[in-house]
Design goal:
- The complex is a heterodimer.
- By secondary structure, chain A is mostly helical.
- Helix content of chain A is about 50%, strand content about 5%.
- In chain A, the strands form three sheets. A two-stranded antiparallel ribbon of chain A has the order 1-2.
- In chain A, a hairpin with a 2-residue loop joins strand 3 and strand 4.
- Chain A is flat and about 110 Å long.
- Chain A starts with a helix and ends with a helix.
- By secondary structure, chain B is an alpha+beta fold.
- Chain B has a domain of about 220 residues: Rossmann fold (3-Layer(aba) Sandwich), CATH 3.40.50.10480.
- In chain B, strands 1, 2, 3, 4, 5, 6, 8, 9, 10 and 11 form a ten-stranded mixed sheet that branches. A two-stranded antiparallel sheet of chain B has the order 12-13.
- The radius of gyration of chain B is 34 Å and the shape is elongated.
- The N and C termini of chain B lie far apart (about 95 Å).
- The chains are: A mainly alpha, B alpha+beta.
- Chains A and B meet through strand 2, helix 3, strand 4 and helix 5 of A and strand 4, strand 6, helix 4, strand 7 and strand 8 of B.
- Strand 4 of chain A pairs antiparallel with strand 7 of chain B.
- Chain A: One of its GO terms (cellular component) is nucleus.
């Protein structure tokens, strides 16, 4: 027994001597970011020591820095979590760039904007609706929904309607029309959110393959886009004066032939007399733009299809898309027509 | 002008979920890394990539196929590869006569490469060549930056920031003592050479509460010679550092902390209305329940009205 006690005592005496120090001395203090477990040691590397033994020097340097971080870390109060002692790390101080830009609020659609202005709240709609006909709950939207077109097996022909018209076909067409309208509005909302029509008015549009003329024009526009129309901008040594002129207004002579003047006045009066609504040019331009873009896409697709060996007219998807496009076009025309009448 | 948001809608539920998962977040997920091999990569350089991959295993994608990419000439293909897996850090390895054992490390902001640094690897010793016990995965490493060169130039400062970004692992709220296992040190020898060393930390008793740290090199070991680099403009970097509104801690008004850590507040009071001051409560002054609702004058009137019929009965 006694020997064991002595052993233990002796061991204790030995270990106290064996313990190495945890103190590290450096001329300049290190910076720490405990939250990130980061040590920045601003002390210069001692070249001569490094050259004597490279690995030992770097290893010792790293050990010292780890020790400094641990000394710093053990100053933090500890907690017990799930039976282990843990340090609650502070938030990292080092600022690291984000991988994506800050999230932006979603742009409001035209309807949402209107709803906000009016202070309307969306009506709460339950997912399931009671179907009287089949006596069961059915989803409001989606598969096996209530009032599904697929389940209609008889449609009464309205008295005013042409009895020869296929009411089922009409119903399907109407549904497609609704889908097309929704798609159209969605695209318009995207356009509104990005203010595309503003750029459309600009004389210089962004393109994939800019020509030299377009580039010089863009440069001239950019130069003249200061408050002083580029008057005080610094110029390069051999830079030419940008020639960009606004449209000059032309006025009709005060004194002219009576017949033309009469014609002009009558024209104005005539226009005033008509109850035709005023043309919204922005809308017309927007529509035309969209039309052009769609036409382009269609042509590209057709080209692609042409290169392939098979000319499948029965390509269902393409046919549906074409139908959609035609309908949108037809609709736009129809709307115009109605206004004129 | 920013690009127009996607016009075509995702066609499947799964697709829309993926698209949604990749939208910008207020609190971002840890950055993921793509490891890409060049067409001309040799075995040794591929080993370097593999070693870096092992250090960052859980949050990386290793592309097995070789790609004909030169990141300093055209990054578009690399950006595409990274967008595919939604990663925002990359490590790219190549090898040729002019630039042997070449690795390019970089990061993107908003799917576009912002910073990239090219290193020649010398004095390389692979992870496997160190015959020692390795560390577990998902260990947050201690990062050490030694040398005065880290503070000297803008490039080195940015490189330091980038290396922290690349190697830091997931952010932690709590850290156990056993989690203190791995250390990566970057020693700058001048502005063009960085010694990368990786250690396992052993905590020994020191006779005090704080343990004594010992390190053991576990690899990989490499001396990085900085070759070409391309860093983001200060504007772009600043934009990338911007924090969303929800994350910023609002400074509390009129609250200060003195040197002892005591928080002192200054409170502005409105002028007190002494007429409403609560003085000593007495039973006699207390209003009864029924009386409390109506005013003082009406109370007496009410009482009289009630009393009248009672009297009549008695008479």
């Amino acid at each position: 027994m006694t020997t064991r006690v002595e052993d233990i005592l002796g061991l204790n005496g030995e270990t106290e001597e064996v313990f190495k120090t945890i103190n590290v001395e450096k001329p300049l203090d290190c910076e720490f970011d405990i939250g990130e477990l980061l040590v920045v040691d601003p002390n210069a590397i001692e070249e001569y020591k490094f050259k004597q033994n490279e690995t030992d020097y770097v290893d010792n340097l790293s050990r010292d820095n780890v020790q400094l971080l641990i000394n710093e870390l053990f100053k933090i109060p500890t907690e017990v979590k799930e039976d282990t002692v843990v340090f609650q790390l502070p938030k990292p101080v080092t600022r690291i760039p984000r991988e994506k830009p800050c999230p932006k609020p979603k742009p409001l659609t035209k309807w949402e904007e209107y709803r906000k202005k009016k202070g309307l709240r969306p009506a709460k709609k339950e997912k399931l609706v009671w179907d009287e006909a089949s006596k069961e709950w059915k989803p409001r939207y989606g598969m096996k929904r209530i009032n599904s077109e697929k389940e209609v097996w008889a449609i009464p022909v309205p008295e005013t309607a042409d009895p020869m018209v296929d009411q089922f076909k009409l119903m399907r067409e109407k549904k497609k029309e609704r889908i097309a309208k929704n798609e159209f509005q969605r695209l318009r909302n995207i356009q509104r959110a990005h203010k595309i029509d503003k750029f459309a008015v600009s004389s210089v549009m962004p393109t994939d393959k800019p020509t030299p003329e377009l580039m010089s024009k863009a440069a001239a526009v950019a130069k003249g886009s200061t408050a002083s129309l580029g008057k005080f901008d610094r110029k390069l040594a051999l830079e030419k004066e940008a020639k960009i002129k606004g449209k000059k207004r032309k006025f009709v002579d005060n004194i002219g032939s009576i017949s033309t003047e009469k014609e002009r006045t009558m024209k104005i009066l005539d226009e005033l007399n008509h109850s035709r609504p005023k043309l919204n040019y922005a809308r017309v331009v927007e529509k035309q733009m969209k039309k052009d873009v769609k036409e382009e896409i269609r042509q590209k697709k057709e080209k692609k299809r042409g290169t392939r060996s098979s000319k499948k007219l029965g390509n269902k998807k393409a046919a549906i898309k074409m139908a959609k496009l035609n309908r949108i076009k037809g609709k736009a025309k129809g709307a115009k027509g109605k206004k004129r009448r | 002008m920013t690009a127009v948001a996607r016009v075509d809608r995702p066609k499947t539920r799964k697709g829309s979920r993926i698209v949604k998962a990749r939208e910008p977040l207020t609190i971002e997920n840890p950055k993921k890394t793509s490891f890409v091999k060049a067409a001309n990569i040799n075995q040794r350089t591929a080993q370097i990539l593999k070693d870096l991959y092992t250090l960052k295993k859980t949050e990386s994608v290793f592309y097995q196929k070789k790609n004909d990419i030169r990141p300093f000439e055209d990054v578009s293909h690399l950006e595409k590869l990274m967008a595919k897996k939604d990663t925002s850090l990359f490590a790219f390895g190549s090898h040729n006569k002019k630039r042997p054992q070449n690795i390019v490390l970089g990061r993107t902001f908003d799917r576009m490469v912002s910073d990239q640094f090219e290193f020649g690897v010398e004095n390389y010793k692979a992870l496997d060549e160190f015959k020692v016990a390795k560390i577990g995965i998902m260990v947050k490493p201690v990062l050490i930056f030694a040398g005065e060169a880290w503070q000297q130039t803008n490039e080195m400062k940015r490189l330091k920031n980038f290396l922290i970004d690349f190697f830091r692992g997931e952010p932690r709220e709590y850290l156990g003592v056993s989690g203190l296992e791995h250390a990566i040190s970057f020693t700058a020898m001048g502005s063009s050479t960085i010694l990368l060393r990786s250690y396992k930390i052993h905590l020994k008793r020191s006779g005090q509460k704080t343990p004594r740290a010992e390190v053991e090199e576990i690899g990989p070991r490499m001396d990085l010679k900085l070759r070409r680099h391309k860093i983001a403009s200060d504007d772009l970097f600043k934009q990338a550092l911007r924090q969303p509104k929800g994350l910023k801690v609002k400074k509390k008004k009129n609250l200060e902390q003195d040197d002892l850590g005591t928080s002192l507040g200054r409170v502005h009071m409105e002028r007190q209305d002494f007429g409403r001051l609560q003085t000593r409560k007495m039973k006699g002054l207390k209003k009864k329940k029924g009386q409390a609702a109506s005013g003082g004058g009406e109370e007496s009137g009410g009482d009289a009205a009630e009393a009248e019929p009672m009297e009549a009965d008695e008479v």
